[in-house]
Known about the structure:
The complex is a heterodimer of chains A (about 325) and B (about 475).
Chain A: H1 2-8, H2 26-38, E1 40-47, H3 54-62, H4 68-71, E2 87-95, E3 98-106, H5 121-139, E4 154-159, H6 168-177, E5 183-187, H7 195-211, H8 226-238, E6 241-242, E7 249-252, E8 255-262, E9 265-268, H9 277-287, H10 289-318
Parallel strand pairs in A: 1-3, 1-4, 4-5, 5-6
Antiparallel strand pairs in A: 2-3, 7-8, 8-9
Chain B: H1 2-8, H2 19-32, H3 35-47, H4 59-70, E1 72-79, H5 86-94, E2 117-125, E3 128-136, H6 151-169, E4 183-188, H7 197-206, E5 212-216, H8 224-240, H9 254-264, E6 269-270, E7 277-280, E8 283-290, E9 293-296, H10 305-315, H11 317-337, H12 354-434, H13 437-465
Parallel strand pairs in B: 1-3, 1-4, 4-5, 5-6
Antiparallel strand pairs in B: 2-3, 7-8, 8-9
Amino acid sequence: MADTLAETTHWGNLKTEVAGYVGIDTLQEQIRKKVLKRGFEFNIMVVGRSGLGKSTLINTLFKANVSLRSCSKSEEKVEIPKTTHVKSVSHVIEEKGVRLRLTVTDTPGFGDQINNDNCWLPVLDYINEQYENYLSEEQSVTRKKHIPDTRIHCCLYFISPTGHSLSPLDIEFMRRLDRCVNIVPVIAKADTLTIEERVGFKQRIKQDLANNGIRTYPMKELEEDPEETVTNNKIRELLPFAVVGSNQQYPNNGRTVYGRKTQWGLVEVENRSHCEFSDLRDMLIRTHMQDLVEVTRSVHYENFRQDRLASRRGRTQFNGQVIDMDSMNESSL
Amino acid sequence: MTSNTLSNFPTTNTSGMTSSGKEIFLNKEKRNGTKEKDKEKESSTSSNDVQGYVGFANLPNQVYRKAVKRGFDFTLMVVGESGLGKSTLINSMFLTDIYSNEYPGPSHRVKKTIEVETTKVLLKENGVNLSLTIVDTPGFGDAVDNSNCWQPVINYIESKYQEYLNAESMVHRGTIEDSRIQCCLYFIAPSGHGLKTLDIEFMKRIHDKVNIIPLIAKADTMTSEECALFKRTILNEIAQNKIKIYEFPDCDDEEEKKSHKLMKARVPFAVVGSNTLIEVNGKKVRGRKYPWGIVEVENLEHCDFIALRNMLIRTHMQDLKDVTNNVHYENYRCLKLAGVGADGISSAIPNKNPLSQLEEEKKDHELKMEKMEKEMEQVFEVKVREKMQKLKDSEKDLQCRHEQMIKTLQQQKNEIEEKRKQFEKDKAAFENSNGDTAIHKIHVDSNSKEHLEYKEKKKEKKKGLF
């Protein structure tokens, strides 16, 4: 760790030997305690046509009924809305003393109409709205110690398992949103595809993504050390993850596993040879959750902020007055 | 003889018929015939005797032989979004590679707009020829905006009906080639929720033009419970939207009725297709191999493929053709000949009644006259206006000239006046300077002198004249 610091920053010049135990390593503990008290926030958005198993997958990922469908106490059969709606629901889940405030944003009605032109606009607007709120909070004169972070950290895009290639709607959506949010494409209902079909399908998808210049998470440009590059390369190999979700448990060889039981066999969700759910879960929760938040904060949000402030500055200069943006209060604009 | 014909009588419509079944079949036919010959026939078949045999029991045989010689044809249309396994299912159903690696199915080819493609295949089995035409619709429901994606399909179906209608109405008609679509397999994506808006819209527009058989594609996505729930939802939605799908008619045969009912209860069929043969328990079967198991296409517990194939090919192929011919085609023909367009809006009704035609002509003529009158009036008005304008212009012109002339006259007058004044002035001045009397004398003298001279001149002139 010290080597990378020396390479990437100018700290290497300042390295001095320490004679004895100072106690700097307790910084870790101090930070941990503070962060534990505050808790973590994670906002995830699921996008895809209806019937692809989005709600089921979210429930399986967090092993709790956190999806919108599980929470809505209204009628049993949820109607497909006429336009794309964006709805969020928040939960706080706890594990070994670590609290996570999870917000799941669902997009019912996406891609379900006959004419799906601009069905991504509500999604795009929602994401920008969250950035806007954060920006205004940040810029206010008296701002809170801890601004509630409602920005979307990760967007899971569900691809229909046709076996051929990406559909035009998929390409359109990802092209427009890959600059605003981390997109993780996922092949839904992967128990439809045999292994060979899956491999071919992934190849074609990767080609489509490359042809259209779509950047999915994890992004190559943001890697800082070779370790990261190796893990991220492995992830990129697997992209898009072919997942199967299930809430139900069945007995198998003495253990109970989550899976789908059919006439011809039992599809185990957490079996790596059956589907890539475990890989997705590891990446999303166990290894890259904090990184997703970081990238959102440092890359996407900063891009948004730059665009917004540059456009506003342009306008004020045009009016004949040059106003100092830094001391500007949002409300007075 | 009857027994001989029985043995030559192969399976035509129903499958799994035993020889005893064939006998029953023939007996029933005879019972439906005339009563006179009945007794004779019954006695002859029961005793296997040749006495009193007329021989029209051979009729089905003749029909059969002719039909076999002619060969059968069947046109099938498959509609659904790309990636639902349509090509694979067609291959599985007819156990041949209609779409193979050299001639891949439409889904593998890049398509921009919705087209309608036909593939013709000739299949042979036990000496029976089947000319199978598969109509595919690549690009259906694939774009971002899918409004009116059903229009090319509807146009195709109606064009086929129109072709048949034209061929039927010709004066010299030979064997009419029947390319009408006898069955449409509609593939529903296995979402597990219900029908999509696109599905409902398409089926609503097609159900009165062609036989629709809805299928659930890629049925190995769902467990049995999910599948049952999905089927119920679909049937509910179809009933709600008043969509008429093809109903398999009940079989007359008692034995077959039970199995038929079971098959019918599986509508909409949840199918799985496969191009590959996999070995299961020593047998080679069509199936899909997963890490967790193998889905057999021809296993009724795994999917409804067998039910679909049996109902479609083995039992009801002829019925589908009949319904297309008698119901859908007749509907189309009625509408077309009554002069109603595709939307149900009636076009101009040609009235053949002569009196009313005369009246119509009269009206037309009157209208024409009125028109002409109006036109002429208009022209007249225009001309009048022009003339008036011209007159006004010339009037103005004249007036101008008149004024000008007066002006010039006036000017001249003024000039003359001035000259006169000047002259008077000069005169007065001259008189004043020379005195008054002298002028008088000169005046008188000059007068007399002048007078005398004049008189002389006159005399001379008078002399001259003589």
